[in-house]
Amino acid sequence: MGRQLVPLTLDNFPDLLGRCRGCVFWELDPVSGEAAARTGRPELEKEAWISAVLLEWGSCGRVVYVDEVPAGFVLYAPPAYVPRSTAFPTSPVSPDAVQLMTASLLPGYWGQGLGRVMVQTVAKDVLRRGFKAIEAFGDARWREPACVLPAEHLLAVGFKTVRPHPTHPRLRLELRSTVSWKADVERALDQLLGAVQKEPALRPL
Fold first, then answer.
1. Which residues contact 178 (CB under 8 A, 6 or more apart)?
2. 29 near 84, Cβ under 8 Å?
3. pTM for the full predicted model
4. Which residue(s) pair with 74 in the sheet?
5. pLDDT over 70, % of the chain
């Protein structure tokens, strides 16, 4: 079974999972997000956001393909590009970190280690760009698909709580530029071409 994590561009934007393709929860502030929903053009707003980030910062996500079929995705960007992040009680994201916005895997791919591989692939990209960490707002009471990642799954792939909160803690993954960390990332990427050990996977949102 062939697995690939491909940088998100406007060309593969249509491969984002259905409901997430038209969701602008993170990409717009609450007022602008509601306005986009009322006018029926959130997908256009999402595409415009991706285009702007591509021009100014570069690719802000990865699309996961299994045997060339879209199976999931992950989105991330510096907090300056994520207006919704300031609305959280545990904001702001640290200036030396990139924000992991959201991620999703189709149910058929849960439990195959892809959640961990997605985070490690983001870590390698973020480290290459000169950032020291990845941070994310978690949902401590997660019960069903939503735009905020479940805190327990972030903890399962290596994040640590840096600002506790009963509902939306802020979590951080330090990108230690050590030989052992880089070797771990490389091993994870190598696994994309072969069998992946079962690890906690990010649930779809």
1. none
2. yes
3. 0.84
4. 62, 103
5. 85
